[in-house]
Design a protein that fits this description.
about 140 residues, Four Helix Bundle (Hemerythrin (Met), subunit A), about 0% strand
């Protein structure tokens, strides 16, 4: 492996690990017996999806803008991954990147919406892990 390739792989793994942490935190938030912060659970699910998409882009050396727009990231991923065209439900995640973080920007997020956000993020995670593994990337163990 060339030094540049190993650096790319290191960065990809780092993006994936950060995404896994976001997903782990989102799932943990659902275990709270009272006062579960559904807006933050949805936010961390969105962050997982965003980081996984960016990891795929890093692996393929595709520059991406500083954005939280999942649809835009999917468009960029579609250059190298056919799977990116089959995820229309992921647009539901984009609003959680901003509206869930700032006062007067947010709408109440329900438990059902936060569960859906986790489900979508988990699906993106699974698809991208499989895509990278098909390309020969040896990934760390699953959550």
């Amino acid at each position: 492996m060339r030094p540049r390739d190993s650096e790319i792989l290191r960065r990809v793994i780092e993006w994936l690990e950060y995404g896994d942490e976001d997903l782990r935190l989102a799932r943990h938030g659902l275990t709270l017996t009272s006062g579960a912060p559904y807006r933050l659970i949805a936010y961390h699910a969105q962050q997982c999806a965003e980081k996984y998409l960016k990891a795929f882009l890093v692996y393929h050396r595709i520059d991406f803008p500083y954005t939280h727009n999942i649809g835009r990231l999917l468009e960029l991923c579609a250059e190298k991954g056919e799977w990116a065209k089959d995820l229309p439900e992921t647009d539901e995640l984009t609003p959680f990147a901003i509206t869930a973080r700032y006062p007067s920007q947010d709408e109440a997020v329900t438990r059902e919406e936060s569960l859906s956000a986790i489900e979508i993020a988990s699906k993106i995670r699974e698809i991208i892990r499989k895509a990278l593994e098909r390309e020969g990337v040896n990934l760390p163990l699953d959550l």
